[in-house]
Amino acid sequence: MMGLLAWAWVFTLPGLVLTALGVPRDRRYAGYASLAGPVVLLVVAVVALLGGGSSSVAFENWLPFLPDGAYRALADELSALMLAILGFVAAVVYVYSLGYMADDPGKRRFFVYLDLFVASMALLVLAGNLAVLLIGWTGVGISSFLLISFWRDRPGTLSAGLQALAANAVGDGALLLAASIVPTGCGPLVTLSTQQCAAGPGGAELLALLLFIAAAAKSAQGPLYFWLPNAMAGPTPISALIHAATMVAAGVYVLVRTHALLELAPQVSLAIAIIGTATAIAASLASVFQANFKKGIAYSTIAQLGYMFAGVGVGAPFTGLFHLFTHASFKALLFLAAGIVIHGAGGRESLAELRGLGRFFAFSLWGFLIGSLALIGTPLVTAGSFSKDAIIDAALANQPVIGWILLLGVTMTGLYIGRLFGIVYLAPAADQHAVHHDPSAERPMNWSIVPLMLGSIVLGYLGNWLRTVLSGPLGPMEPLPPVPNLTGGLAFTLGALGFVVAVWYVRRPEYAAAPGETSYRADAWVRAIADAGYAASASLSRIQSGVLTRYVFGSVVAVAAILLIRVSLR
Amino acid sequence: MDDLFGPLLVGCAVALASAIGVVLARRPIYAAIFLLVHSLSLAALFGILSATMVAVGQVIIYSGAIVVLFLFVVTLLPSGGRELGPTGSRVAAGFIAGGGLVVALAAALAASSPPPTTSGDLGIAAVGRSLFSTVLVAFELTAPLLLVAIIGAVVIWRRHEPAPRTAPVQKVAEARRVVMHR
Amino acid sequence: MSSEGLVLATAVGLFAIGSVGALLHRHPVAMLMSIEVMLNAANLLIVLGARVRGLADAESAALIVLVLAAAEAVIGLGLALALFRRKLVPDIDEAAEVRG
B1-81+149-154, which class in CATH? Predict the structure, then answer.
């Protein structure tokens, strides 16, 4: 089965072709042809994961102008796990989209783009070397752009898509650079830590740094976070699939896959942990002040990815991967539950307009509640606790400062998710007629999130089993902390505290649900710094005069100067 | 290769003279004619250097198509007739840039040692073999390059109409689709 | 002077002459023609290299440069014509503020 899994990226292509050709002619059933793809992917991946082993495909000399230009695909337990996650969330999202996008004229195009995304993501996961990884990487970037800017007539969607492409371009550049400095004969991704691979220019550190930059671009960490909140301009199902569960997890996956290389570059590892933690805290803080429902959840995604990066950075890649596994389930659940309310309210997303409307959607309420409990790490009942405790434990063991920061950060997690839950679901309802129920659309939406609810409860128990299964690709790992344990209990208490405080705070009638505006006016010295920046860029931009002759003159003189400098330095 | 010095000298002289003609011509149409002579002289040079494929390509592709395209454009332009002379600042810029470039290139060439002369087969068959094996990717990529150039030229020339709001257009599309179904 | 030296000097000279022309001319199409001279100079250098080293690969590279010249001429002339459509532009520097 692993051999079949190595070609898993082909599974959604028949659906893509059929849907693009318009195979279910009736517009109501558009997209049904694509449903088989992710289900097949899930089944094959789970069977392969249970069976174990590994399989690789190699076509040498596929791209002869690259140092390592072979086509290599590797299917082992790690890829099987990632593909199982992808198949699971994708299958749920496909069914959900049948309801959510039922009235949308672009439904067929939507499913084609979804198929393209799943195929690219599968190729990314199955990549055996940097060349194939780059192709999958670019593929998910393009599908992400197409899906974010899906509604072309709404303002701001194209800009959001272009921002995602811009951040992706940074990651692409880093990955391209990595692919070109990896020495010849280095071969598969998994051997990046061997002596001959690390002997390239810059050594293991440079390679690890470039991979980190690429992962940070894809997972919205550090300064490259900006595209993810704006990517909420796309339809909610893809916010769940791409920007919560799978594509943004690709960064974590790449770092886990090359964890042996990170062990050779301890400073880069530390940087990963620090940036992950800083991003987690900053994003949690930002989420508390969001006025848009989906953006609040988006900042939560960034924060949780920060936790995963911190786990990888402190030298415990399995904890990061485990959190990726559970996070996929409950974050997709949070987004899809939010989508039910948004769909019922006619597409409105601001918290001020959605205040109290959640109570009319029972499935959504329970889904969001379970997702929130998983997010703050309710022990034993939800999956999030297992994985988050594992990260915090590993951090406390290796980098205690980071561990404590992450632990205290759970308070803010409770705060922001409690705020969102309280405003939308528990606040006194504004107006019953603000929502409209559409049974035929809501049925697939409601029932498709049930597997996610079950997953958010149950998947945590698979931790120890996963640890055994993944011991092949990941090598010997630290044991997971016993359940329940002290740190986990402390984390949960902090999170629950934040949750309760937030719910109490927003249920008060005088609370205004749109705290996006503040009355902060910048001090004089802040304004002076900004003015200096403006002045500097204005003077520099005068070089771009548009006068072609000056450009030609400049180019020729520059070429001559460079040549003379080069000659004189010989 | 020194037995070719005489023909090479003639070819280089014509090439340089016609290039100076392109630069100094007052009317663009004269510059185009000088460019034609220049490209043909280069074709001759390529032929003397026994690179027959490129020589033929230079005649057919460059002189026969590109320079003719230039001639077309120059004759079709409304003010293709005359050109104002260069201002003083341009002449100064030209001298500085040109002089600097010559100095820099000469210095770079003088500082490097010439590679050893090897003889090889530069015939058309050899070029064909190399085009389809070693240089294959670049060769195939010229096709999309030309396609993009064509599309680019059309896009540059297209007048920009304000795009209508997509909502009404979609309704029209819907109606049309229904008709086609029947 | 050897033959190689002669052709090298010619290529350098042609390149410099072309760049001077690109700076002297004010008509857009004439400027483009000077740039074509520069491109031909580079091509001459490549062919000389092919001859000296005996490599057919370099000759095919020169052929591909020819194709590149064609693509570049198409776009350049399209741009020049588009400039002329808006208003008569005998001087390229007046087009500094063109948008779209």
Answer: mainly alpha
